[in-house]
Amino acid sequence: MRRIWPWLVLCAVWSASAQPPPGAARAEGAPQVLRPDAKLPDRKVDASLGERRYSQKEEERGAKEVLAFYAKESRLSTDPRLQARLEGILHLVITAAAQLGPRQVCIDAATPELTFSIRVLESKDINAFSAWGGNIFLTRAMVDFCQSDDELGGVIAHEVAHTMYHHLRDQAARMRRYQTQQILAMIAASFMGINVADAGIMAQYVYLALFNGHSVTDESQADWAGCFYAYRAGYNPVGMITTFERLHRYMMSQPVPTDMGAFQTHPWSDQRARTLEAQIRALGLPIDKSDVTQGLTAMVRLDAAHRGQATLYLDDSPLFAVAAGSGGDSAERAARLAVGLNRAMALGVRAGSLSLREVDGVWRISGLARLRPVELLTLDPADAQLAGEPLATLAQGVFNRVQARCRQAEAETGLS
Q1: Which helix (DSSP H) or strand (DSSP E) does residue 244 occupy?
Q2: What is the pTM assigned to this prediction?
Q3: Nearest Cα to Cα of residue 90 among 20, 139, 137, 142
């Protein structure tokens, strides 16, 4: 099985079997069997993605090993709503894959049709991978990492493409050929007086360079086909771009080398994003990253220990404790402020347009959205009294937090 780098691989967790009859009950947490028989949205794609031949026996043998390893209660999610959400996405993607290709030409005419299922691993690693026999696995962290069904659809489409092109089987076949050649080379080295251990080490470096190169090719092909699959299935393929870009930023924040040389098993995520962007433009589609990523959301949290004192948040960032005022108690006023802030976020206010000013003793944070002025927040002397600091200081601190969070969100969605 190919090695999976947890911070880089884009794949998904699922498994293969036959479609149950309509209305058939299934055990809670068990994956639904999915076959390419769903009705797709009306999205036409003129693409011929080729043809492949494969051995079903090897697929079945590998699938049993995969399930024996991963199908344990401690490893798998049992969330039925999450399972249903992912199965719905997968159903559309595999239908698109069956219609677009590659066409599967089985060696054995009696070979059953390729089927899929999906599972989620309870893991904090951002990871996804396709395995033998139509099994696709996503980690919980990967599901949380994706900000929309469009992004999840792209991840799943990428993994379905790996399965449709039988990359794992092809890589296993190449590995067996290499291992045979390595043994012969080491025997020859012993006759020539070359240290067998040194020859073995050099052979391992050759192996890494050879198969990592194949892996780069496989990943690029899965990106290319997955883009068609996702679009034909009704998902915005721009989600593949935003996922790769966010993954690249995450990867760059980790203690990993910037140049992996022979150890690079996948193309860099930013390079893959650029390649996909060109492919999506060639389809004639607009690239609006805000359509496939989450906007910032204002919310109110109450502190029961302090008589329901409300604090206004922007996502997970606390902004300030809201005082009671003419607009009602703390919770009521905070709720109204949250509505106004969410309206501004939904309109697409940008960090660079934000401004802070005082009008009649009240400080206001405003900005521009679609070239029109929009008000985000107001802070009054009661808020400053509750915070125990001058109103100007409090207002400046809230402004800085809002602006910083907006800039971060814009960077994450590629809008900065």
Answers
A1: helix 238-252
A2: 0.66
A3: 137
